[in-house]
Amino acid sequence: MIDVRQTRRLTTTLVALTIALVAGCSPRPEKADTVGGPAVTSSSTATSATTPPPVVEARSLTQAEIDAALLTQAEMPPGWTQDTSEDGPADEQDALTGDDEASIYDPPACEEVVEGLSGDRAEREPVARGEASFGTETFQFLAEIIETWEGSLREAALDDLVEALSTCPQYTETAADGTATTMTISALDMPNYGDRTLAVRLAAAPTESGGFDISFTLDVVVVASGNVSVSIVAGGFAPVDPAVLQQVTSTAMQKVNTVV
After folding, report:
1. Does the CA dihedral 93-215-105-189 come out positive or negative?
2. What's the first-to-final CA gap in the chain, in angstroms?
3. 3-state DSSP helix/strand/coil % of the chain, to nearest 5
4. Going by C-beta distance under 8 Å and a sequence separation of 6 or more, which residues neighbour residue 31?
5. Neighbouring C-beta atoms of residue 48, cutoff 10 Å
6. Which helix (H) or strand (E) holds 255?
7. 220 forms bridges with which residues in the sheet?
8. Confidence (pLDDT) at 34
9. Cα 12 to Cα 16, 17, 92, 133, 255, distances in angstroms
10. Please, are residues 204 and 7 in contact by the beta-carbon 8 Å criterion?
11. pLDDT tens string 17-58
């Protein structure tokens, strides 16, 4: 089976690196930044979203404002149910931070990319943070994370992140227990919903087939607006429809923009 921890580690790393995204004085791009190569969509039967992406003003949010801006059950498309359990992405990230067992990468050069990103994540903590999680009966999930960061943000860091991810579009990570997972990082075609947006697809698959082996796909959309970042992580055994992904992201940004 695949090691789910390996995919979660890279996902939470990308989410935490959102403090690198900022528009500054540069023009606001129409499309999200993504890795090199042809962009993929979340399913072959998807319809395009009709809600235009809002322009979000650059500012910070308090903890109370973040809590009010989080998506609720009423704002999700049909078929999605809110997860009210206490466990969430933050708990997963804490568990991953404590996992210091070394992994082996193939090609070896990708170790510097992945482990380097994890190191950057450990040095940064948000001022305020909130999260909401949702799921379907078909075992798909969608998590929203809103964070406010302190200090100046560096737009150049986003370009460095995209370039680093593009150098390792596919690699195999073998954990200390011998579990090997092949990770594929693909371009994801999404609008820009704020100052800058990062959109990538992460697909994880076992290196050997077996009766209980599973593969799954995660779409990661990270929007930065001033010192606020909004991250949407969605996927499962099958990708989330791109229309749903765009609708949810647009709704999330509308709430962030009008919460005060």
Report:
1. negative
2. 46
3. 30, 30, 40
4. 189, 190, 191, 192
5. 8
6. helix 242-258
7. 200, 233
8. 86
9. 6, 9, 8, 14, 23
10. yes
11. 554 444 444 567 788 888 865 444 444 344 444 444 544 555
